[in-house]
# Entry
Amino acid sequence: MVETPITKDCLLEVSDGIACLTMNRHDVRNALTGTAIVDDIVTVVDWINQHTEVSVLLITGNGTAFSSGGNLKDMRDKVGDFAGDPASLQKKYQRGIQRMTLAMDRLAVPAIAVVNGAAIGAGFDLVNMCDLRIASDLAKFGETFINLGLIPGDGGAWLLQRVIGYQKAAELTFTGKVIDADTALNYGILLKIVPADDLLSDAYLLAKEIASKPNYAIRATKRLMKTAQVENIAEHLKLCAHEQSLCHQQPDHQKAVLALIEQLNLKK
# Structure
C-alpha cells in the first residue's frame, strides 16, 4: 500500500494506479478560496509526480457542487484572499490560486475532471485544467468572472480558448453566462455526460483503461501532449525521438510487444 500525503479539505484515495481527489467542503460548495483545497491539489500533484505507481488522477467534488470558485462572502467582506491593496492582492493571487494552475500544468499523468455539479468561475477553470472531462447531467458551467467585475485571475482566459477555440471562449467569458451539461458537450468542453448515479463508476472505467497502459509511456505521452501546445514541429520531433528512445528500454514495452506477437500468432 502506497503511503499517501495528508490533505485537509480533500479526500484522497489511491488504488490500482488511480488517484481520486475529492474536494470535501460542501459547506462552501467546494470554494477554492478560503479553504485548503488549492493547497491539497498542489500537494497531491507533487506527490503523484514523485510516485510512478499512479497513472491517472480523478478530480471531483463532494456534495451538490464540483466547485463554486471564489468565496463570495469573503469577496463581499474583503477578507482572506480578497483583503488588501492592489499590490498585496497581486501577491495573494500568485501565492494562492495560481499555484493550482501551475501545479495542474506540471502534473505528470492524465487528469480527468469528474464534474458532479456546478463548476463556476475558478471551479470551471479547474475543469479545463484537466485533460479529459466527464460530467453528470446535473452539472453546470460558467466563466462568470465578468458578472462580478473581475477577470479570470487563475488563467481561465488562457485555458478555455485552448479547449473550445477563441470564439466560443470569448462568448462564455464576455457574457458570463452559465451553461448546462448538454451545451458544454456541444461546445466540446465535455467528453461525455453520464447519469449522476453512474458518474464516478463511469469515470473509474475510463481511468482503469488508461491505467492499464504502460506507466512510463503514459507519462511520456502526457509530456508530449503538453509541450506540443507551444513547440514547433521540429522541436516536437526532437523530444519525440528522446522519449521514444527511453520507451524502448522499458520492460513494459518488451512485455507488450511479446503479448501482441502471441495474440496475432506472429511467433515464426
